[in-house]
Amino acid sequence: MSYNAEFRRSIDDPESFWRDRAQDIAWMQPPSVIWRAKSNGHGEWFPDGVLNTCDVALDANIRAGRGDQKALIHDSAVTGESRSLTYAELTEQVALFAGALAAQGISKGDRVIIYMPMIPEAVIAMLACARIGAVHCVVFGGFAPHELAVRINDAEPKAIVTASCGIEIQRVIAYKPLVDQAINEADHKPEHCIVFQRPQLSADLQPDRDLDWTVLMDIADPVAPVAVQATDPLYILYTSGTTGKPKGVVRDNGGHAVALRYSMSLVYDAKPGDVYWAASDVGWVVGHSYIVYGPLFAGCTTVMYEGKPVKTPDAGAFWRVCQDHGVNLLFTAPTAFRAIRKEDPEADAMEHYDISSLRSLFLAGERLDPPTYHWLAEKTGLPVLDHWWQTETGWAICCDPIGIEPMPAKPGSATVPSPGYNVDIVDPRGKPVRTMEQGQVVVKLPLPPGCLTTIWGDDERFVKTYLAPVPGYYFSGDGGYVDEDGYVFIMGRTDDVINVAGHRLSTGEMEEVIAAHPAVAECCVVGVHDDLKGQLPVGLVLIKDGATIRPDELEEELVEMVRERIGAIASLRQTIVVDRLPKTRSGKILRRVIRQIADQEDYAVPSTIDDPAILEEISDHFRR
Ligand code: COA
Ligand code: AMP
What we know:
Layout lengths: L2 H10 L1 H9 L12 E3 L5 E3 L4 E2 L1 H11 L6 E7 L4 E6 H17 L7 E5 L4 H13 L2 E4 L6 H11 L3 E5 L1 E4 L2 E4 L1 H10 L6 E5 L13 E3 H7 L8 E2 L3 E7 L7 E6 L1 H13 L8 E4 L6 H13 L3 E6 L10 H9 L3 E4 L1 H10 L16 E4 L6 H11 L3 E3 L11 E2 L16 E2 L4 E5 L12 E6 L9 E2 L3 H9 L5 E10 L5 E6 L3 E4 L2 E4 H9 L4 E11 L3 E10 L7 H15 L8 E4 L13 H8 L14 H11 L1
Parallel strand pairs: 4-17, 6-7, 6-8, 8-11, 11-12, 16-17, 16-18, 18-19, 19-20, 31-32
Antiparallel strand pairs: 1-2, 3-13, 4-5, 9-10, 14-15, 15-25, 21-22, 23-24, 24-26, 26-27, 28-29, 30-31
Helix pairs in contact: 1-2, 3-4, 3-5, 3-10, 4-5, 6-7, 9-10, 12-13, 17-18
Bound molecules: coenzyme A (COA) and adenosine monophosphate.
Adenosine monophosphate (AMP) binds next to strand 26 and strand 27.
């Protein structure tokens, strides 16, 4: 079938389209109802289907004869170790850890926070939760205790699973004290904290609350997958929104399994037995969908990499991993290749490795800038495939549908809408714009399976953020345009979300931290262009009258505060003390214009501006 035919069918008759796709996964009870609409235009996929996501990912592969195939390869560049688990071995570990969780009284619907480095135990913990119907909530290890505390309060987990440490290049980061600090700060207190002790560092355990992973595993009885409704939540994954409070994106079991299974064929053209490597972290959506679930649903071998694209030990690290494990499909964020290119512009390191197993390279998480696209295509000679998606959707909204019909590449474009996503571009009043005209990127409801079902504990926020802005559509928060061939170009966020090294961060959240400093009268944070990380946050700050702190002292303190409160990952390295901030007459800070000035872009002086002379002052600050 051609892409056009498949796409049209998915839009004209979504129920029949997804009924067929649903046959590709193992159900305990196949759905008879495919779609049930809710009053707000959103709805539920496969509402009477029954399955277990861990069964689809693991046991079903053993039933299909893949028990002895490698399911997971862990490659740790920071410890120099590598180990693998077959489907049979991984299933055994997961069934045991599921038993360990069950023995602690954790059952269907309970939440479990997982705060772990990139080690197989993180994947085992996620799949074990799925096996007993518990809802996992993975928090990226680079987030500071306060961020973890916010998520503990929101998700109210019964248990936290962690490890004694993570390793950042050569720095051993003790995780347990961070977890202790977060639990102390949080109002909600989890009953248990299960700690995997790594050889690099041993964590102190608190009697009554803390449990040792290995001890629990030694006494655990394996458990079988429990039946859950397709609509039951599989996980919560927090992502940055425009306010300081992150949004807990909720994903269901059935729609998720069907959509990810389909995406493995459509977007990645993956076959059972393929070695699939998503170089990301389990703390992000890419890690959830394509380190853990997608590749396992498709019977692939997934690679989990603990290391960086550079410095562990050099810019050849990615090519080394591809060679050592025979990687067929590699997915990462453009920033990783920008880092490699910066250190090894001619890709000399590639020559030392045999990367002939690689078929395609996939990029997402931020805009794939044309120079990075061309460099990669030229140096590797491989298809370089950009695709656009978000934590909310869990899989590609736009892609080159190579599993059906490869499309000619247009650098800068994420290619065409994936079947299931009826993408449109609208103006601020919600009216569709013309071809080539920029606007808000929206998706006509219903969204396909696999997308968020709500925001944890806050359905009102879900409706307000995604459904209310343009009635009848999902509001993506991204701006872009469609060209005459139907190619979609995503140009960046239109809200206060920024993308730093493929990590999604909220400037609003950073502003809240900065504004809490007693010497700060007012502030704003904008994302300015950075050649390596895509964007970097920069804070503009107004000192309170009468405050005695020196501007350079304040600037340093603010950088440290953001690091302490949000985490090093925020990468806020610069704040600038200014005399005034540009505002509209109604008092709204002109963040967009500030960003344009910082990036030396042309900008229109807004007619609503309070005092245009301020723009020149801001310009001077950035020139300095
Ligand atoms: N635990 C603790 N700290 C962490 C961490 C973790 N899991 N991950 C990152 N950090 C820290 C880093 O050590 C760094 O600290 P520093 O300021 O003290 O040096 C800080 O957070 C910023 O990290 P990062 O954004 O990763 O920057 P970097 O300079 O260390 O590396 C890249 C730059 C481009 C190499 C890196 O960002 C990268 O590999 N990106 C790949 C893209 C990616 O995985 N995106 C995920 C979504 S697909
Ligand atoms: P996250 O939810 O962390 O995956 O971040 C999602 C955001 O990253 C999107 O809203 C986009 O702004 C950006 N993004 C992801 N993939 C792409 C892409 N291929 N092209 C442009 N922007 C992208």
